[in-house]
From TrEMBL, chain A:
TM spans (from-to): none
Family designation: Belongs to the ABC transporter superfamily.
Protein name: Amino acid ABC transporter ATP-binding protein (PAAT family)
Domain ABC transporter: 7-251
Keyword check for Membrane: yes
Top-level taxonomy: Bacteria, Pseudomonadati, Pseudomonadota, Alphaproteobacteria, Acetobacterales
PROSITE patterns membership: ABC_TRANSPORTER_1, ABC_TRANSPORTER_2
UniProtKB/TrEMBL annotation, chain B:
Family recorded in the similarity comment: Belongs to the binding-protein-dependent transport system permease family. HisMQ subfamily.
GO biological process, one term: amino acid transport
CC annotations in GO: ATP-binding cassette (ABC) transporter complex
Claim: Transport is one of the keywords in the record: yes
Entry keyword set: Amino-acid transport, Cell membrane, Membrane, Transmembrane, Transmembrane helix, Transport
Protein's membrane topology: Multi-pass membrane protein
Compartments, as annotated in UniProt: Cell inner membrane; Cell membrane
Name recorded for this polypeptide: Amino acid ABC transporter membrane protein 1 (PAAT family)
Gene3D superfamilies: MetI-like
Organism annotation: Humitalea rosea
Function: Part of the binding-protein-dependent transport system for glutamine; probably responsible for the translocation of the substrate across the membrane.
UniProtKB/TrEMBL annotation, chain C:
UniProt source species: Humitalea rosea
GO molecular function: transmembrane transporter activity
Protein name: Amino acid ABC transporter membrane protein 2 (PAAT family)
Task performed by this protein: Part of the binding-protein-dependent transport system for glutamine; probably responsible for the translocation of the substrate across the membrane.
Stretches of the chain forming a coiled coil according to its record: none
Keywords: Amino-acid transport, Cell membrane, Membrane, Transmembrane, Transmembrane helix, Transport
Listed InterPro entries: AA_ABC_transptr_permease_3TM (IPR010065), ArtM/GltK/GlnP/TcyL/YhdX-like (IPR043429), MetI-like (IPR000515), MetI-like_sf (IPR035906)
Stored Gene3D superfamilies: MetI-like
Cell compartment(s), UniProt: Cell inner membrane; Cell membrane
GO CC field: ATP-binding cassette (ABC) transporter complex
UniProt cross-references to SUPFAM superfamilies, sorted A to Z: MetI-like
One GO-annotated biological process of the protein: amino acid transport
Length: 262, 222, 224
C-alpha cells in the first residue's frame, strides 16, 4: 500500500494504578484505511482509542498523527505536555464517536453539529448551518435537524453524533463501540452510515464487536489480547487463519454469525 | 493598617461566659427543633390529608414563614404579643416560640417529602397484617420516615443553631450577644469575634459529624 | 378620611411613606448587589471546587465550609467591626453587602459544584473530542446543562439573601426592617407596621420565587 501513514503508535503503555492495561501497542493507520480493533472486553481496545484522543494520557510510547506527537512535544529528550489550547487543536483534527452517543442534550441535532464548527473552527453561523445540514442529510436526518436528542431514537442520536464528528472534517475518525448501547434493530442504520463513510475514503479506527461489519469494511484488523496486539493483518487473514488459540476462542463466540450463511 | 496586638487572655478570662452562652444557644436550637418537629409533623399530615380546609392554611403558613425574615418574626412576636394582651412570655420563651414556628414550617416540608417518598408496599403490607390506621403510622410509616428524613432534620438543627445568633437582637445572652457585650467592655474585637466564630464553626462541625454517625447507624435500612 | 386623622393607620402609613420607600430601596439594593456578586463569585469558586488544581480546590473547600458554618450575623458584625479595626472605614451598608456576599458565595459555589458534577462525564468527553477548550466546554456544554439543577437552590439562596439583609439593621443600615422599627418608635403602631413590613418582604420574595419558577419552566426542555 502506497498511502502515507496517518497514525502511528509505538510501544504505547498505560496503567491505571497497579493495573497495566496497555503493554506496548504498535499500530499503523494509513490514509483512507479502516482499521478495526477487536478483542475481549478488558483487552485495552477502548483505552487505546481514548489515548489517541487524549481522553486518557498514555504513560510511555508515542502516538503520532501525521508524524506529530499527540499530547506532548519533545524538549531535548524530555516530553513536555502540550498546553490545553494545543491539545484542543489536535483533538479537533480527530473525530470521536462514543458508545453512549454523548449528544449535548441542551442543543438540537443541528446545534450539536454546529457547536464545534463555530467555536473551534471559527466558521460563521450560516456556513456552519450549511455544513451541518449537509452532514445531517448524509446520515439521513435532515428532517430532524431541529429535534432535541431526547426526541430522537438511539440510532438517530448516534447518527447525529457521527455527523457531529465528521462535520469537523477530521483527519481521523475514532469509533468506540458505537452500536453496543443500541437496540438490535437500530444497529444496522448506524453501521450503514459508517460503511458509507468508509467507502468515501474516510480514515477510521474502529472498536467494534460487530464482526460481520468488521470483516466487511476493514482494510486491516487488529486483535488485542491483555493489553497487547496479538495478531493483525487483512480481515481474511485474521478471521480465516487465526494463529493463536485465544483468537480462535474469541472468534468462536461469533461462530454462529459466520456460519449463519450471511 | 494599624498594628493590632492579639491578647487572647480576654477569651480565657471570659471562658465561662462563652461556654454558658454556647450552651444556651444549643439549648434554644434543640428545644425549638423539638417543638418544630411536632408542628411540622402535624402540618405535613395536614398537607397530605387531601382536605382543602386543612391543607390550604398550612400551605399559607409555610409560604409566609419561608418568605419572611426571621429577625422580623422575632421582633413581631416579642413586641407584638403584648399588643394582643399576651404578657406571659419572657424574651427567651418568646424567642423559642418564634424559632419553633419558623422551624415548624421548614420541618413540615421535610416531613411532607418524607411521607411522599415512603413506598406504598409498606403501608399495604401493614394493612395486610391487620394494623389499624394509627398503628400503621406509628409502627411503619413514622419509623421509615424518620430514617429517610434524618439528614434533613440534622441539617435543620445546624441551621437553627446558627439562627440562635439572632436572639442577640432581643438581648438573650447567647454567643453573639455575649461576644458583643465582651467587646463593649474590652474592645478586643478580633479575638472575641474569632473565638465566637470558631465556637460556632466547631459546634456546627461536630453536629455534622454526629449526624453522619447517626446516619450510618440507621443506614442499614433503605 | 383616615389620611387627615393622626393615630389612624392610613394617616400614619401616609406619614411613613418616604421612610418605607427608603427602607425598601436599601433592602432591594443590598439584595440585588449581593445576588449579583455572589452569583459571579460563586460560579468562579464552584468551578474551582469542581475542576481546580488540588491546592486551590482545598482552599476553596475550606472557604466554603467555614463560611457555611458561621452565622451570617456574626459574619456581618465581624466584617463591620473587624474592618474598622484595620483602619478600613467601610460604610455599614457596604460592610453588610460584603459579608452577605461572602456568605452567599459559599452557597452558590457548593450548589454549582453539585450541579456541574451531576452532568454525565461523557458530555465533557464529547466536548473535548470536538476540540473545545476548557472555558468553551464549560460555557457551551457543561454550564447550560447544570443550570437546570442549579436553579432551585439558587432561587433559595436569593430568598435567603433578601431575608439576610434584615441583619444589616444590627449595624445600623436603615433597610426595611430598621426603617419599620423607626416608624414604630414614632407611632407605636407595632402590629400594623410589622405586618406592613412582613407583607412587603412577602411580595419581594414571592416575586423572586415566581421568577425562579418561570426560569425553571424556561429550562425544562433540558431533559436527559
Amino acid at each position: 500500500m502506497a498511502e502515507q501513514i496517518l497514525l502511528r503508535a509505538e510501544g504505547v503503555r498505560k496503567s491505571f494504578g497497579a493495573l497495566e492495561v496497555l503493554k506496548g501497542i504498535d499500530l499503523e493507520v494509513r490514509q483512507g484505511q479502516v482499521v478495526s480493533l477487536i478483542g475481549a472486553s478488558g483487552s485495552g481496545k477502548t483505552t487505546f482509542l481514548r489515548c489517541v484522543n487524549m481522553l486518557e494520557e498514555h504513560d510511555a510510547g508515542d502516538i503520532l498523527l501525521d508524524g506529530e506527537p499527540i499530547g506532548y512535544r519533545m524538549d531535548g529528550s524530555r516530553r513536555r505536555r502540550l498546553s490545553e489550547a494545543k491539545v484542543s487543536a489536535q483533538r479537533a483534527r480527530i473525530g470521536m464517536v462514543f458508545q453512549s452517543f454523548n449528544l449535548f442534550p441542551h442543543l438540537t441535532a443541528e446545534e450539536n453539529v454546529m457547536l464545534g464548527l463555530t467555536k473551534v473552527l471559527g466558521k460563521s453561523k450560516a456556513e456552519a448551518r450549511e455544513i451541518a445540514g449537509h452532514w445531517l442529510g448524509k446520515v439521513g436526518l435532515e428532517a430532524r435537524r431541529g429535534h432535541y436528542p431526547y426526541q430522537l431514537s438511539g440510532g438517530q442520536q448516534q447518527r447525529v453524533a457521527i455527523a457531529r464528528a465528521v462535520a469537523m472534517d477530521p483527519r481521523l475518525l475514532l469509533f468506540d463501540e458505537v452500536t453496543s448501547a443500541l437496540d438490535p434493530e437500530l444497529v444496522a442504520e448506524v453501521l450503514g452510515v459508517m460503511k458509507a463513510l468508509a467507502e468515501s475514503g474516510m480514515t477510521m479506527l474502529v472498536v467494534s464487536h460487530e464482526m460481520l461489519f468488521v470483516r466487511d469494511v476493514s482494510h486491516h484488523v487488529v486483535f488485542m489480547d491483555e493489553g497487547k496486539v496479538a495478531q493483525s493483518g487483512a480481515p481474511s487473514e485474521v478471521f480465516d487463519r487465526p494463529d493463536s488459540e485465544r483468537l480462535q476462542k474469541f472468534l468462536g463466540r461469533f461462530h454462529g454469525i459466520f456460519s449463519g450463511g450471511g | 493598617m494599624i498594628d493590632y496586638h492579639f491578647d487572647w487572655t480576654v477569651i480565657t478570662r471570659n471562658a465561662d461566659k462563652f461556654v454558658a452562652a454556647l450552651g444556651l444557644g444549643l439549648g434554644l436550637a434543640v428545644v425549638s427543633l423539638a417543638i418544630g418537629c411536632v408542628i411540622g409533623l402535624a402540618a405535613a399530615y395536614a398537607r397530605v390529608s387531601g382536605n382543602k380546609w386543612l391543607s390550604t392554611p398550612v400551605w399559607a403558613y409555610v409560604e409566609v414563614i419561608r418568605c419572611t425574615p426571621l429577625l422580623l418574626l422575632i421582633f413581631f412576636v416579642y413586641f407584638g404579643l403584648p399588643e394582643f394582651g399576651i404578657y406571659v412570655l419572657d424574651k427567651t420563651q418568646s424567642f423559642i416560640l418564634t424559632l419553633s414556628l419558623y422551624a415548624g414550617a421548614y420541618m413540615s416540608e421535610v416531613f411532607r417529602a418524607g411521607l411522599a417518598s415512603i413506598p406504598k408496599q409498606y403501608v399495604e403490607a401493614a394493612k395486610a397484617i391487620g394494623l389499624r390506621p394509627w398503628q400503621r403510622q406509628r409502627w411503619v410509616v413514622l419509623p421509615v420516615m424518620f430514617r429517610i428524613t434524618l439528614p434533613s432534620v440534622g441539617n435543620n438543627l445546624i441551621s437553627l443553631f446558627k439562627d440562635t445568633s439572632l436572639a442577640a437582637a432581643i438581648a438573650i445572652p447567647e454567643l453573639t450577644f455575649t461576644a458583643r457585650q465582651i467587646n463593649a467592655n474590652t474592645f478586643r474585637v478580633m479575638e472575641v469575634w474569632l473565638a465566637a466564630s470558631g465556637m460556632y464553626l466547631a459546634t456546627a462541625y461536630l453536629m455534622a459529624m454526629g449526624l453522619r454517625l447517626l446516619e450510618r447507624r440507621y443506614a442499614s435500612i433503605r | 378620611m383616615g389620611f387627615t386623622i393622626p393615630g389612624t393607620f392610613t394617616f400614619e402609613l401616609w406619614q411613613a411613606r418616604f421612610s418605607l420607600l427608603r427602607g425598601i430601596s436599601a433592602t432591594l439594593l443590598a439584595s440585588g448587589l449581593t445576588i449579583v456578586a455572589a452569583t459571579v463569585m460563586g460560579v468562579l469558586l464552584g468551578t474551582i471546587l469542581a475542576y481546580g488544581w488540588w491546592p486551590l480546590r482545598l482552599l476553596a473547600r475550606l472557604y466554603v465550609d467555614i463560611l457555611r458554618g458561621i452565622p451570617v450575623l456574626v459574619l456581618i458584625l465581624f466584617t463591620y467591626y473587624g474592618l474598622a479595626l484595620f483602619g478600613i472605614n467601610v460604610p455599614a451598608f457596604w460592610a453588610g453587602v460584603i459579608a452577605l456576599s461572602a456568605f452567599a458565595t459559599a452557597h452558590v459555589a457548593e450548589n454549582l459544584r453539585g450541579a456541574v458534577q451531576s452532568v454525565p462525564a461523557g458530555q465533557m468527553e464529547a466536548a473535548k473530542a470536538i476540540g473545545l477548550r476548557f472555558p468553551q466546554r464549560l460555557r457551551y456544554v457543561v454550564l447550560p446543562q447544570a443550570i437546570r439543577r442549579m436553579l432551585p437552590p439558587w432561587v433559595n439562596t436569593g430568598l435567603e439573601i433578601v431575608k439576610g439583609t434584615t441583619l444589616l439593621s444590627v449595624i445600623g443600615v436603615v433597610e426595611l426592617l430598621l426603617s419599620t422599627q423607626q416608624i414604630v418608635a414614632r407611632n407605636y403602631m407595632i402590629i400594623d407596621f410589622y405586618l406592613v413590613a412582613g407583607l412587603l418582604y412577602l411580595i419581594i420574595n414571592f416575586s423572586i420565587a415566581q421568577l425562579g419558577a418561570a426560569l425553571e419552566r424556561r429550562f425544562s426542555y433540558l431533559r436527559y
